[in-house]
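Support case: user asked for a sample of complex input and structure output to validate their parser. Sending the pair below.
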Amino acid sequence: MAARETKISVKGLAKAFGRNHVLRGLDIEVEAGTSVVVIGGSGTGKSVLIKSILGIVEPDAGQILIDGQDVLAASRRQAQALRGQIGMLFQGAALFDSLPVWENVAFGLMAKAKIPRDQARVRAVETLEAVGLGEPVADLFPAELSGGMQKRVGLARAIATRPAILFFDEPTTGLDPIMADVINDLIRSVVSDLGATALSITHDMASVRKIADRVAMLYEGRIIWEGPAKDIDASGNPFVDQFVHGRADGPIATIQAPQRRAG
Amino acid sequence: MNPLALTGAAVLGIVSTLGGLVTFALRALSRGIVGPWYPRQILRQMLDIGYYSLPVVGLTAIFTGMVLALQSYTGFSRFQAQSAIPNIVVLSMTRELGPVLAGLMVAGRVGASMAAELGTMRVTEQIDALSTLSTDPYRYLVFPRLLGGVLMLPALVLVADVIGIMGGWLVSTVKLGFNPVSYVNSTFGFLSTGDVVSGLVKAAVFGFLVCLMGCYQGYMSRGGAQGVGTATTRAVVAASILILTSDYIVTEIFFSH
C-alpha cells in the first residue's frame, strides 16, 4: 500500500504557563485521511496542543507543519490560509449565544466562503440534517437546545465548509453514554464522508475505540506511545495500560500538584 | 517583602496593564478600520448603546436639570442673582453634566454588559471559535462596539442636554415663578456653539473609553464565572475613573485659554 502524505506534523512543540511546562517537546504526525486520537489525563496539555495548531495559543518553541508548510514561520495571511482548512468542534460546543442555530452553522460559510445569507441558510439546514437535526431547530437559539443537540450543532458548524482537517476537543464530555455513541458515530461518518484528516483529544475510551485509526498517548508534555487503535489493549506500555483500564495504581501519578491552564 | 520591591512590582503592574490596554486599542482600531466591516454588528451595537440607553440617560438628565435649577435658586437668591439660573443650567448641562452623567450611566449599563458578554464568550471558548471560522474577533466583536460608543454617546448627550434644560425650565417656571418665554430666550441667548461642541467631543471620548474598558476587561477575562464578575466590576470602575480624568483633560484643551 502506498504511504499516505503527512497532513499535520508537529515537531518539538513546547509551551509553558509560568512555571508550569505543559508541553515539553511534543512530536506527532497525522497522515492525510486518517483519524488520530490523542489520549491523556486532565491537565496534560491535550487542548494546548490543538489550540497551538489553531493559533489560539502561541507556543514557546517547535514547528507546526500543515501540508509541509510551517504555520509558525508563515506570514499572517499564509498561516490564516493554512489554518482555514481546519474545522473545530469545541468541548462545550462554543456556539454563539446571540445567533440562532442556522446562523451558527452558516457562520463559516458566510465568513470563509462569502456565500450570501439566503444560500447559506439553505446549506446550514442541509448540514443540520446531516447531523440528525434540521429545519425545526434552525431558528432556535443555542440556549434552547440540550447538550447533545448543541454538540450536533457544533459538529454541523465544524463541517459546514467541508474542511480538509477536523479537530474534536473532548467530543463526548458531558453527554450520556447513548448520546456519546451517537456523536461518535456522527464523527466517524462525517470524517469518512468528507475524506478529512481528523485529530481528536479525549479521555473517553469508548470514543477512542469508535473514532480512532491511530492513538497517541500524551504524558508529561510528550507523546509516550503511538500506534494503531487496534493495538491499544496490547500496547505493552504500562502508562497506556493504566490509562486504558482506568486503574488508580500504576506509573501515572493520580494526585498532582494544582496546575494552571492546561487542557 | 521589601517596600521598594513592592513599589516596583506595583509600577510594573500598572505599566504592563497600560501597555496591554494601548496595544488592544491600537489592534482593534487598525484592524477594524481596514475591514472587513460587519454592518449588522455595528447597527446592533448602535441600537444597544444609543436607543436602549435613552430611558436611563433621559431620566438622569431631567432630574439633574431640575435639581440644578432648584439648588442654584437657593444659592443665587441670597445675592439677588436668580436671573443667572437659565445660564447656569444650560452651561452646566451642555459642558459638564450632560456628557459626564450620560458617560457614567452608559458605563454602568453598557460597559458592564460588554464586559460580561465578551467575558462569557471568552470563558466558553466562543472567541476561540470565531478565530477558527476565519473571523477576527477584534474586527467582529471589538471594533463595532468602539464605533458604536463613539457615534452614539454624542447623540445621547445631545438628547440629555435638551431634556436636562427642559427639566430646569420646568422647575423654574412651575415652582420658582420664571417667565417661560424669557427663560428660553435667556437660555439660547447665552448658549454658544462651543459649549455644545465641547460636550459632544467629551461624549465621543467617553463613549470610546467606556466601550474600550468593557471590551478589554471582557476579552482578557479568565477563570469562569468569578473571572467574568471581576471583569465586569473592573470595566465599570476603570471607565468611571477614566471619564472623570479625561473630562478634566478635554476641559483644559477647550477652555484653558
